[in-house]
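cron nightly-structures :: item 1 of 1
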Amino acid sequence: MKQDIERLKARLRAANPDDPSFFSWMEEFVPEAEKLENPTSMFRIIFELFEANPQSDFGCPGPLVHFIEAHYPKYLDELKNSIGQSPTPHTLWMLNRILNSRLNPQDRSDLTSILRSASENPRVDEEVRDCAIEFLELQQEHDLNH
């Protein structure tokens, strides 16, 4: 099993999201990752792939996100860490998807605060900050309507 995990992690590290066959690659990768005894062991490396390729197309939301989201809330700490270190449009989108769900007020406040921090961080690329601002505005609108 340890060999399987390391083999899959190596495949993720070598993945090229800009390759035209990447979407097919993801569709082949995910079923293998799902078979692992502990599929959550893949979360950190997937977030690293997102961080290293912030402008790449991972789908809408794509097989990797569906794989991760199937394990909610087990990935939440990794998502928070990823956004804190190097937010990307895709990880912010994942956070927004959580915020669109039913949450208790404290969790909603905590997650909105993470989104706000990304929107105000001067070290974050302007496009990523704009993405965070857009999601913040959507969540503020959501709060007004509920």
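cron nightly-structures :: done
The mean pLDDT is 95.
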